DNA sequence: AGCACGCCGACT
DNA sequence: GTCGGCGTGCTC
């Protein structure tokens, strides 16, 4: 790693060079801002450190130093940097390069990238607070105060300072701004900005013997004699000495013992412990500890790779000799994870860092536990459900070299690696690697590849069902390709059976959403005490409800969608903006009580199955049941412990989980997965079917998959049942070529939003025309009104630009697009349009 | 992104 | 006649 630039050595400090720093503010601003470095900070300012500046009239913010130079800005007076937060950079030079690349490639600002990249505890921002005016005398106010003002003055007397939100809570009203204004005028209070450090280290209370008793052996002995009359206290000291053998090594006493080890011991009395502290025999102190417990005792256990795994690993290593990127195409259950682990070990032996990316829903406790067993405390985990303090510790742990492997979700690509030697992108085809809202709309897989080129390291992409673009690159020889098509262990691939729900409906053998066949199989598996997973790719109870008499359908008032019915709280809810209302008892349009639900989600499946199989223990796992960290763990633990017989869920049940006792997987409604208006619909459906099927029958037992569909003759099922990825790929790549989709063209989606439908339409049409005129060698499609044409009261139009790389440079095309968008805002009718650019949308 | 300045409707 | 709505423009 290159060292942070020292711009001036301390012995030259007397020369008083005037320095300026260009900083990146964590805001969507198009450029950097230049601040002046106070002379006394000249020796401490480095690229990548955080500094505190005032931005605007009052806001105080932390930002990242991107450059330090001696060029005074022209045309304005630079403000001074107020403070330098970090002694050493928290952002590495490689990161700044990558961040700039992301901003350019995904057409957003560097500030937006920084904002997404830094854990929020590293982003400090001031908050306005009020306190009493130093000259204010509560006994003799100069001006009379209103009751509300009195209340604030009283609270300030107690609390010294208040934030605006605290004032709001205190007065129980929203319009408190004028009250504050009035208090300032009356010179009762003053406003100031306070910036608080958000990262709080974890502190534990510890106990040790007072130094008096350990310096000399006699003292300790004497203490024991003294305590002979206090057997309970003696007991505590003896326990302490057992944990900390001070008599063997005096220096052990310094580190003491965790207080709760003594206090939580049921054989020791709390009051005796406190008495010893009071008497000064024990001394209490605090230390800062890691949130990731250090455990050096675990050796890296050896495990044996199978013949096929060794072959795959060697092939990958061999290909890395000539290629920087290798695709590992391994069927579900072929044991890709062990290959990854082996490669990670090898990379670590060379002293490099490793990044192992997984999609959010695949980063489960199961995989983490497995990796901890191998890598112990050298493994950092970066997950969105982690607290901010934990994220900061991972961030710092990488900077300090404590962690050399990180397993993480897409945002882990932002971490401050300085010496990557391997990146693994598992489930490479997953669309959740792409962030859609807010900017940066990046794809972590693509950023990972760029990260690898900056670090000159290798990338391994892994999937059972690679994205068509990825496979194309591998097949054409640009990237390496390694295939694993044997399942690890004895188990073969599961049997897959189709059930024609349309025919069963005609025969009247459907039990609501369950075919005769599926229901019978569930019952038979449960009888054998085996477990079942049911997959339904839609949460809630029903996607909409409908009045039987007048056809009324409740719609969201902010979005062009019908409201989904959630039964557990009798609520109608919009999945786009969160708007919700209670489920009406009768139709508000005609008064009829005949309201029926249409379609179904996981909640309804769970509900109906409980009626059909009252004996079975059924659990549901979807976004609604896993909102909190523990609920997710609980559902998994219950299923693992066999307390649950049937698990009903969305995509969440399909990834990262291995359950040994699952012998049946049911896909309730395959058609809802296939019939999607998108060029990737088939690819995605195939990936999902294969992924779900992979949950059936691991470890020796052959599993069964039942797919329910109203149209079993569709070609995709044949490919799924025969596990024929190649057929899927060949079909898809031809379609892509024929209709000019990636990888043959680059797609940029431009969405125009406006509260006024007409203006939105006009602006989009104008923009599309501008694109067409200025990008003559490329295809501009639209504007089109999307299926959901209004979200959060904004009307939408979409323009798709397909860039032909043969004729246009991506870079210049993006400049043209950005310029056209800026141009259109000069027209004052269109000043209020919002334009969202999505590069490589998924 | 905030925040301040600035011009048009419903209240004392 | 004022308060206060949020449109618009700026922040080194």
TrEMBL record:
A single GO cellular-component term on record: primosome complex
Alphabetical keyword list: ATP-binding, DNA replication, DNA-binding, Helicase, Hydrolase, Isomerase, Metal-binding, Nucleotide-binding, Primosome, Zinc
Binding residues for Zn(2+) 1: 547, 550, 587, 590
Residue intervals of the Helicase C-terminal domain: 582-756
Cofactor binding note: Binds 2 zinc ions per subunit.
InterPro entries per UniProt: DEAD/DEAH_box_helicase_dom (IPR011545), Helicase_ATP-bd (IPR014001), Helicase_C-like (IPR001650), P-loop_NTPase (IPR027417), PriA (IPR005259), PriA_3primeBD (IPR041222), PriA_3primeBD_sf (IPR042115), PriA_C (IPR041236)
Positions of transmembrane segments: none
Positions with a binding annotation for Zn(2+) 2: 556, 559, 574, 577
Pfam families: DEAD, Helicase_C, PriA_3primeBD, PriA_C, Zn_ribbon_PriA
Protein name: Replication restart protein PriA
Species, as recorded: Adhaeribacter pallidiroseus
Lineage: Bacteria, Pseudomonadati, Bacteroidota, Cytophagia, Cytophagales
Gene: priA
